[in-house]
Amino acid sequence: xxxxxxxxxxxxxxxxxxxxxxxxxxxxxxxxxxxxxxxxxxxxxxxxxxxxxxxxxxxxxxxxxxxxxxxxxxxxxxxxxxxxxxxxxxxxxxxxxxxxxxxxxxxxxxxxxxxxxxxxxxxxxxxxxxxxxxxxxxxxxxxxxxxxxxxxxxxxxxxxxxxxxxxxxxxxxxxxxxxxxxxxxxxxxxxxxxxxxxxxxxxxxxxxxxxxxxxxxxxxxxxxxxxxxxxxxxxxxxxxxxxxxxxxxxxxxxxxxxxxxxxxxxxxxxxxxxxxxxxxxxxxxxxxxxxxxxxxxxxxxxxxxxxxxxxxxxxxxxxxxxxxxxxxxxxx
Length: 332
Prior knowledge:
The protein contains 14 helices and 10 strands. With 332 residues, the protein is α/β, with parallel strands linked by helices. Among the domains are: 10-99, Spore Coat Polysaccharide Biosynthesis Protein SpsA, Chain A; 236-331, no CATH class. Helix 3 links the parallel strand 2 and strand 3. The longest helix has 21 residues, at 261-281.
């Protein structure tokens, strides 16, 4: 590539929060440094770790000037990401979790599509998940599919296509995002520990100029029982849905864009149905102030959905059916 091309191509900043993640951090950072095009800035925010994570990051900083250590008092992933946004200098931002991996051509392929479409503000792709086992035993499988391919204009019609094709990811790590888009939409992360990605991504899908979507998987998610999304089993998981949903509706009003409620319902349906399952499976106590909202959610979801009706009203039967299905599958 010529020097002129180097100057013309957009710069990339990676934002990676980490809390007590020393065990898997090296594999995550190495996957960035082994990219065919390495990002110009890798910001790692140590969110008050106590396991020596910061010392490991310091070692990386000494070896590679593109890596930047930021020490934060423990404030959660949203505060860490917001801090990273304040420090990022790249034209495009990529948010990555500190225990996951990126495919080696992620940034090169993004730059290729950006050159083909100068108005591109989002590069969206699929993700696979692997169990937290030794490398030789890993068998990544698609868990976050993108069933669309091509360039789309952001907006309601685009979100409808994402919803309809099962491609509306509510997570950060399956998109590279224009910093100008984030600034233009005044997007920030809500101070919650679950579903904080969802309102952020909805706003970007709604207001991006051009979005490239591909079914190619560039992200590899590590499944571990210690992750926040897996270990949260109290009402905060449900409460944070309501907070995220309110954040989305506030962002819609601020953008002065008429959006039908059904579009937002479809976008959040996996989270909404997850709330019902969590409430039943973990026998959660619903605080008095949230009971009207939970009751309304139950009525909405069970009205025309037999599966959710059985989960909510006949949960022992549903659990027995799931158990039998697993037994039959293992016997075949």
